Amino acid sequence: MFEVIMYDGGVYRSAELFELIEDVGGAVLQKIRSSQMLTVTMSIPTEDKEAVVALCREIGGEVKEVPLAGTEIAVVGPTLGRHHMPHPICDIAEALRRKGALSIVMGLARGRGKGTSQISGSEVAIINEYDAAIFCFGNFKSCIEAKAELMKDIKIPLILVCGPRPEGLEDYCEGIVPGVGRKSERMRSPDERNKLDEIVSMTEMVLKDKRKRMSEDPLFVHPSEVKQVLENYHPIDMCLRPSPIVLHLDGLRAKIPYDENIQAIKDIMIYGRKLGDIAKITESKLDRSSMLIKIKTGSEVEYDDARKAAGKT
To answer: How many domains is the chain built from?
Structure first.
């Protein structure tokens, strides 16, 4: 398994750090330099973490845990209207970002009202593209329970954040965090900040379980290794959109047009294999200018190789 940590310190002897990351088979996820200060987010094998942490401290840097780095999480509210947004949904999204996740805020087109709330098939498909989702409902128990139907088709790990604790919704989500309803102001008090920490901790636990399940049949290559190769692809290198490559637990999102780049992306070589042979590449449902790259597991690649050897397609 790989772990993600952040080095925060000076540039002094940083070359040694990058060499060690490469030697242990890790990858640099993000590097930010400001004058003589350097921040490096890296993915490293768990068994080599102690050696990397020791070097970070030896060269005068601080090591921070960013357990949600390399994930993209959707924070979903019933609507984008002021009746539901932006508090506390934006506070939750910001709390996730501070732990390393790339979070997005999404409102349903027709989510308002206990009797009229709906979720469309396209909205479900968009949400299912993320590593996890956090649904934020309101202050009324009967309303929360009635809106359970909005979550039934979500296939990714899901956490419900709401006011009163509902009954009978345990089968719809991996975790429930009560005590956070609609608010007209930011979550600033100590109790409210503790509640944000609880939501983040619940998200960490849910994604840790997902990582553990994935480790039983590991991906053929780590997403960070694919990211390093794709960064040299010209359309991505020239992309001006924020975070042109976004890591997921099981792949990544590349923010380039699908139709124009699909064949070139499939033909990119990684460890002697074409990316199209070791990953499932599809167009994002969010827009027509992004693609999803889901990396196959080792057993899936082995199965595909066996079929090809047998003359099957």
So the answer is: 3
